[in-house]
Design a protein that fits this description.
The complex is a heterodimer.
Chain A: H1 3-6, E1 8-10, E2 13-16, E3 21-23, E4 31-33, E5 46-52, H2 53-63, E6 68-74, E7 79-82, E8 85-91, E9 99-105, E10 108-112, E11 134-139, H3 151-164, E12 170-173, H4 179-189, E13 196-198, H5 203-210, E14 218-220, H6 226-229, E15 233-236, E16 253-257, H7 264-269, E17 274-276, H8 284-293, E18 298-304, H9 306-315, E19 319-322, H10 331-340
Parallel strand pairs in A: 3-4, 4-5, 5-6, 10-11, 11-18, 12-15, 12-16, 13-14, 13-15, 16-17, 18-19
Antiparallel strand pairs in A: 1-2, 2-3, 7-8, 8-9, 9-10
Chain B: H1 2-13, H2 17-30, H3 35-44, H4 54-62, H5 67-77, H6 80-87, H7 163-172, H8 178-187, H9 191-202, H10 211-221, H11 226-232, H12 241-247, E1 269-270, E2 284-290, E3 293-301, E4 307-313, H13 324-327, E5 334-344, E6 347-348, H14 351-358, H15 365-370, E7 373-383, E8 386-387, H16 393-407, E9 412-414, H17 423-431, E10 445-452, E11 466-470, E12 474-485, E13 494-505, E14 508-517, H18 523-535, E15 537-541, E16 544-547, E17 556-561, E18 563-566, E19 574-577, E20 580-585, H19 596-608, H20 619-625
Parallel strand pairs in B: 1-11, 7-9
Antiparallel strand pairs in B: 2-10, 3-4, 3-5, 5-6, 5-7, 7-8, 10-11, 12-13, 12-16, 12-17, 13-14, 15-16, 17-20, 18-19
Helix pairs in contact in B: 1-2, 1-9, 2-10, 4-6, 5-6, 6-9, 10-11
The chains are: A alpha/beta, B alpha+beta.
Keywords (chain A): Ligase
Organism (chain A): Rhodoplanes roseus
GO molecular function (chain A): ligase activity; RNA endonuclease activity
Chain lengths: ~350, ~625
């Protein structure tokens, strides 16, 4: 069987005709297999959804109880037979519940990795390398300039700034699902034990994480007073930075935790004063470490800078091609787009160009 | 070096002065000698070494990376130093990952059976990088006290260079050795460290910190005034260990032996209409306010008999190197406060002409001939050993006049007094400088200065002694087209505005952007504009909002500006000097705002006037379009 017949890019997303399901479909479909709960991958309105327990819970938190006709939870490593294909989920190390989807038929193995990273993250299961014939990789940070560096250094930047400016609120823009909780966990690991304040959009998801992982003293911004925010960490969606919402804080410093912060022009364009290079995606080194390690003879690349990775693969004798799936992107961008629909006077942070 | 790099990194993003100061003072407090001293030298621009050319940096990266990936990356990042800093292969010194903070099974697992995932499989370079061998000279530097990279399984140590190593090495390094040394340093640094190093060696350390600000941060270490540092400064040299020792109370104040040190200048207040009532014209002298660069020229003889002469900007930056033609005629002993001007054929040129001399890297003979520098003397602070700053202005001016006359140097002259009997006469002089003796230099006059005859020379901006009375700005009614959010405290406000004027387009009248303004309004007005922008957005481009702007709906700004010049870089064909929002015209329909032709006519008129440098500043244009009286 040709890999192109096992998984086929369609306008609704990546489709497995044999198994009768789509992976991370962009439109409502009968059967959806979901890698993780970020909204560009996990949408509401499918007939049946197969995902990890955590992903299903997080989708429920986002979309309400009736986000799909039926749901089925799957454990990491569990093998399911779906109409002649064998499907299993393996940790992607991206966010809580995130998975790579392994699809096998007649000895041909394709792994759709969704978004992934192969570096430690205290908030989710570590990335598992799954041998395969075809590896479908994201390429969000698919240029050699994206090197996320040492996470402890980045957290150190924040804690040093907190010590140096004990009278200023440190507003940290971070994606509400995954990034925010990882930052809290990293701060706690760095022995930062003061209260962390949360923007309203982050409370529910952070509460879900906090039930499974010690995140220390968490408080809602709406319960805090201006005095309490002095020298405090306040987590908010990136779109809230620069919003009028920030005017309630004493002399705020705009911080932003994202892999994009590696590029100075990007940070400056967004008016960020303390950029933190913290990403839940692989950097270039990670991508070029994982891709050959899968042993795949063919690499399919989605969302991001595919071109550079295709070139890199060719220099390594790997066949590679971009899969032109429209609709996935960096979560921050998606979060910005979502807030754009909130109303004409709703403030919006800079959208990242695709 | 990594710590200095981290400081530069933070300073580059920090918009606030106070916060910049705090970061620098913290760095000086927590960084040992001589590292901090070299950092101070770098921040104050006190270093001189042969800068590396971009071509060298390109060659280095080309030897280490795939050219296709480099081009894609450079195209994306847009800055050579930054691209190279980020792409530089980390292969030589693997930085180990910290253990997982969460504990329990985080990290990459599995799959070594396939021979695959190892921590940091190095990117294989396309051309083998230079690898240190036994015949190589030992690496410069002894490693940094703070963050030497952990070395795992490597015999050739790539230690993090200190800033001190880098600077002392650069000052003596031969050109041929630069590439290899630079590559070696880059191997030992992290992304930020590499960025800072490349900025330093290419001479592009632009992080919005003046020498004065850096000295202020150092002064704060010992609760001293920055002025005290200024007086000592010329006698000090990197790494300033005696300075730090004094500031930390470990040693006596270093001796100020230099005869050409900088004295902080005295500054003026803008005069308001109400201020005149309380002032007696007889107490003041008036001078022209020249549109050049305020400088301090200091010269004298060292104890060892060596003559020194220096030119300082008003913030204390030593700008001598840019004006050798002026330095060589500073044959007096003392310190003169004055204005740096370009004078051609006895005629003071506009600021626009002066700017053409300023923004050059190399000072060539041609540049000096075409743009001859001139010092117009305002004040005498020191003469010989005598500090005159406590004396009244009248006495200082008399001594200055005598000194200038003795010098007999055509490139140095005395700023003339403007005769006036009362404020009305001065107002007339200000509006028509050529009527009262300014002659052909009138275009380079910004207004008048009023100085109390009995005032001592006090550093800073003391109240009531010196006043500036600028000529009225030009004004134009323009339409707000785009708004962008500001930075720092203004990051939640749309505070940077692009405004336009009408011109005939293919489909009727259209607005063409003519300038940008981000000040001139009050906090209250900012709130009003911010609200208007949010409620009248028609388009969004990243941080920029397009605001409704047609003949009926939109917001008209009265924009004040100081001059115009033609520009090929702007779609409108003109560039405004110093534009700011002077008034909000919510009452005015955008259709009634001004047309681009108005400015073009002003420019055309100015170009009829010789020596204006194409800038609109001549009297006829002024009376036509100037605001107020």
């Amino acid at each position: 069987m040709r890999p192109e017949s096992l998984l086929v890019p369609t306008p609704a997303g990546l489709c497995c005709p044999e198994g009768g399901f789509h992976i991370d479909p962009l439109r409502p479909v009968a059967r959806a297999v979901i890698t993780h709960a970020h909204s560009d991958h996990a949408r509401a309105g499918h007939g049946a959804v197969l995902a990890t327990d955590e992903t299903l819970d997080l989708m429920r938190l986002r979309y309400g109880d009736h986000f799909a006709g039926t749901t089925q939870a799957v454990r990491y490593g569990e093998r399911l037979a779906i109409d002649g294909t064998t499907v299993s989920f393996h940790p992607a190390g991206h966010v809580l519940g995130s998975a790579q989807i392994r699809v096998e038929r007649d000895g041909l193995v394709i792994v759709a990795s969704g978004d992934y990273k192969d570096v430690p993250d205290p908030t989710c299961a570590p990335f598992e390398l799954v041998p395969c014939d075809v590896f479908i990789s994201e390429a969000t940070f698919g240029l050699p300039v994206f090197r996320h560096g040492d996470i402890a250094t980045e957290i150190g930047k924040l804690t040093r700034s907190l010590a140096l400016f004990p009278d200023r609120a440190h507003l940290v823009g971070a994606y509400s699902l995954g990034k925010a909780q990882r930052l809290i966990a990293l701060l706690r690991a760095a022995r930062y034990d003061r209260p962390v304040f949360l923007h309203g959009a982050m409370e529910a998801i952070t509460g879900y994480y906090a039930a499974r992982l010690e995140l220390g003293d968490l408080r809602a911004v709406r319960d805090g007073t201006k005095g309490e925010f002095a020298g405090a960490v306040v987590l908010c969606p990136p779109s809230a930075l620069g919003d009028r919402w920030t005017r309630r804080f004493p002399d705020p410093i705009a911080c932003f935790a994202s892999g994009w912060m590696r590029i100075r022009a990007r940070a400056r364009q967004r008016g960020v004063e303390l950029p933190l290079v913290v990403s839940d995606h692989c950097d270039w080194d990670g991508l070029t470490r994982v891709i050959p390690a899968t042993g795949a003879r063919e690499i399919w690349l989605t969302h991001g800078a595919e071109e550079a990775l295709v070139h890199w693969c060719s220099t390594r004798g790997l066949r590679a091609k971009p899969l032109h799936l429209v609709g996935y992107g960096d979560e921050e961008e998606v979060e910005v787009l979502e807030s754009a629909t909130a109303g004409p006077d709703q403030d919006i942070a800079t959208g990242e160009p695709a | 070096m990594n710590r200095f790099a981290a400081l530069l990194d933070r300073l580059a993003y920090e918009p606030g002065r106070t916060a910049k100061l705090r970061q620098m003072t913290d760095y000086f407090r927590t960084t040992p000698d001589p590292e901090r001293g070299f950092a101070l030298a770098a921040l104050t621009g006190a270093l001189s070494f042969q800068h590396a050319k971009p071509g060298l940096i390109r060659t280095l990266i080309a030897e280490r990376t795939d050219p296709v990936l480099f081009e894609m990356s450079y195209d994306y990042v847009g800055d050579l130093s930054e691209t190279v800093a980020l792409m530089w292969p980390a292969s030589a010194s693997p930085r180990v990952r910290p253990p997982s903070p969460g504990g329990g099974g985080s990290g990459v697992r599995e799959a070594d059976d396939r021979g695959g995932v190892k921590p940091h499989a190095p990117e294989r370079p396309f051309t083998p990088p230079h690898s240190p061998s036994a015949t190589d000279p030992p690496p410069p530097g002894k490693g940094e006290e703070e963050a030497a990279s952990p070395l795992i399984g490597h015999n050739s140590a790539h230690l993090t260079p200190t800033l001190a190593d880098v600077i002392t090495t650069l000052q003596t390094l031969g050109k041929a050795e630069l590439p290899r040394t630079l590559a070696h340093w880059l191997d030992g640094l992290d992304e930020t460290g590499r960025w800072a190093l490349l900025k330093l060696v290419t001479g592009g350390l632009r992080i919005g910190v003046s020498a004065r600000l850096a000295k202020t941060a150092v002064a704060a270490l010992g609760d001293k005034e920055p002025d005290e540092i200024e007086i000592l400064w010329p006698g000090l040299s990197p790494p300033y260990e005696s300075l730090f020792a004094w500031l930390e109370g470990r040693a006596d104040k270093p001796a100020a032996e230099d005869p050409a040190s900088f004295r902080p200048p005295m500054l003026s207040h803008a005069i308001g209409a109400d201020d005149f009532k309380a002032l007696d014209p007889a107490d003041f002298i008036a001078e022209w306010k020249w549109d050049g660069i305020r400088v301090q020229a200091a010269a004298g003889v060292c104890p060892d008999g060596r003559r020194v002469a220096r030119l300082y900007s008003r913030t204390g930056e030593d700008i001598s190197a840019s004006f050798p033609d002026l330095i060589e005629v500073l044959s007096f002993d003392g310190a003169v406060d004055g204005e740096l001007l370009i004078v051609r054929d006895g005629r003071v040129q506009s600021f626009n002409v002066l700017q053409q001399r300023l923004n050059r890297k190399a000072v060539t003979a041609k540049l000096i001939t075409e743009f001859p520098a001139h010092l117009r003397a305002y004040d005498l602070l020191v003469e010989g050993d005598e500090d005159l700053r406590d004396r009244p202005l009248s006495e200082r001016r008399a001594r200055l006049a005598a000194m200038v006359q003795t010098l007999g140097e055509p490139r140095i002259d005395l700023s003339a007094e403007i005769p006036f009997a009362d404020w009305d006469a001065l107002a007339h002089a200000r509006a028509n400088p050529s009527d009262v003796g300014a002659g052909p230099d009138a275009e380079a006059i910004e207004g008048v200065m009023l100085k109390r005859r009995d005032a001592p020379y006090l550093p800073g901006r003391p109240k009531g002694l010196w006043w500036k009375w600028k000529r009225d700005p030009f004004i134009v009614d323009a339409v707000l087209m785009y708004a962008q959010r500001g930075h720092g405290k203004r990051s939640s406000y749309y505070s940077d505005y692009t405004f336009g004027l009408w011109r005939a387009g293919e489909a009727g009248d259209e607005l063409v952007p003519v300038g940008k303004a981000y000040f001139g309004f009050t906090d209250e007005e900012l709130l009003k504009i911010d609200r208007f922008v949010r409620q009248n957005t028609v388009n969004r481009f990243g941080p920029v909002r397009e605001v409704t702007h047609d003949a009926e709906t939109g917001l008209v700004f009265e924009v004040a500006f100081e001059g115009l010049q033609r520009s090929t870089r702007h779609r409108s064909g003109i560039a405004m000097r110093f534009p700011r929002v002077s008034r909000l015209r919510f009452d005015k329909p955008p259709g009634e705002a001004d047309r681009l032709d108005t400015l073009m006519t002003m420019l055309d008129a100015a170009e009829q006037t010789p020596s204006s440098g194409g800038r609109v500043l001549d009297a006829s244009a002024r009376t036509g379009k100037r605001k107020g009286g």
